[in-house]
Amino acid sequence: MTNNKLTTSWGAPVGDNQNSMTAGSRGPTLIQDVHLLEKLAHFNRERVPERVVHAKGTGAHGYFEVTNDLSKYTKADFLSGKGKRTPMFIRFSTVAGENGSADTVRDPRGFAVKFYSEEGNYDIVGNNTPIFFIRDAIKFPDFIHTQKRHPQTHLKNPNAVWDFWSLSPESLHQVTYLMGDRGIPATLRHMNGYGSHTFKWVNEEGEGVWVKYHFKSEQGVKNITNEVAARIAGENPDYHTEDLFNSIEKGDFPVWKLYVQIMPLEDAETYRFDPFDVTKVWSHKDYPLVEAGRMVLDRNPENYFAEVEQATFSPGTLVPGIEVSPDKMLQGRIFAYSDAHRYRVGANHNALPVNRPKNEVKNYQRDGQMRFDSNGGSSVYYEPNSAGGPAESPVDKQTAFPVSGLAESTAYDHDDHYTQAGDLFRLMDKEEQDRLINTIAGAMGAVESDEIKLRQIGHFFKADPEYGRRVAERLGLPIPQEVK
């Protein structure tokens, strides 16, 4: 008979898992029942704190295959050589809701991809929208507070949402996108993904270009209406999670084609929009999509907690050949995401199997909670050293870029928040515009303050007079005189 004994976490066999040790049959319970104490203590700690944002999510394993060799633009190894395959993991998520919220809410979807490359992990941490609500990380905590619950009522607060948006006109482009048809994807398989920010690619010669990432769904883009979304949220709040799992389980593997837009470095100085402003897009006419490869999801996680909940992503998880841009939102996220993981999962989160790189990690970081490897053993633990420990490789230094100006709190030079939002509105056909207006009016109808509504209507009007007029009519309010 095989040994299949239940054990404690330290490996000792458990003699009774049904009854606590007590003083007599009635008790009280004895503190010497170490199995009981450990079992209850572990149970109390089974849930790590949920993510402050992107709490509700699901994920899958797969691979990325290069279909177009772009090594003339970047020395990143996972992008070199047509046919090269790199294992990867992806996490999809909503943004504002808690871990138990419904999948079909009107919300951006997180689209976070971890590539296990031969030179370390590389994370693209984006959304299913090519833009974002704000462009400076200093505003991020305030923005997310508006999406969360009121501290007294513990209810969602449309007054806070629209007050913030109306006082932050840079949000208009993303608001128009979110309130439009693509605000609620039919499934996670039927939406695109974007890196959103601008990044820098550098080749072996040290030559650089600016890039933006676009993951295009080969399943096509499909969306659902408010009514269908509300019905599904009531009937099956885990609809997207279930659909992705079942699709992969039955062999219907979702696929995305990765494209990049490539901008010469010097164009950033003269382009008509600031290319580092995450509330803006680059015209595809100016910078066409260039194919890079295909991402295929072909394996479900074996354990949700170990592989999805403990997965950690950061736009600062970089590899040689890929660097950051001056995008102020990106610069803040580089710190904030890794810091959130250190708080939520622990200082050694990158040593967990789902986050651990495929290549060997060699550094002088030691100790910390949950250090479950050899902790460096008896090897040298400082640098520089005379013991032949791992040393820096100057060839892998990030490339230099010029900076100038005064060290002060400054805004972006460009404040045209209306052209691209108006262009997006005008790209919609009449039926899509109708649905957009209905969605916005329905969401703003719950706002108590006419002042907030009028301020937001003014932004819609500046983007396109028809846009502002129709929202105002639906809300029974006039167009503010100052914007006419």
Would you write up a description of this structure?
- The protein has 484 residues and is an alpha+beta fold.
- Among the domains are: 57-133 and 184-344, Catalase core domain (Catalase HpII,  Chain A, domain 1, Beta Barrel), CATH 2.40.180.10; 419-483, Catalase, four-helical domain (Hemocyanin, N-terminal domain).
- The protein is built from twelve helices and ten strands.
- The protein has helices at 34-44, 140-147, 158-166, 172-179, 226-235, 239-249, 304-309, 328-344, 419-427, 430-444, 450-463, 465-475, and strands at 57-66, 85-94, 109-117, 120-127, 193-194, 199-202, 208-217, 255-264, 289-299, 322-324.
- Strands 1, 2, 3, 4, 5, 6, 7, 8, 9 and 10 form a ten-stranded antiparallel sheet that branches.
- A hairpin with a 5-residue loop joins strand 6 (199-202) and strand 7.
- The termini are far apart.
- The mean pLDDT is 94.
Largest sheet: 10 strands, antiparallel
* Secondary structure tally, helices: 12
Shape: globular
Oligomer: single chain
Rg, alpha carbons? 25 Å
- How much is the average pLDDT? 94
Strand content is 15-25%
Order of helices and strands: HEEEEHHHEEEHHEEHEHHHHH
At CATH level 3, the topology of the domain at 57-133 and 184-344 is Catalase HpII,  Chain A, domain 1
Give the distance, in angstroms, between the N- and C-terminal Cα atoms.
Answer: 85 Å
Number of strands: 10
Question: Could you give a short description of this structure?
Answer:
Helix content is 27%, strand content 16%.
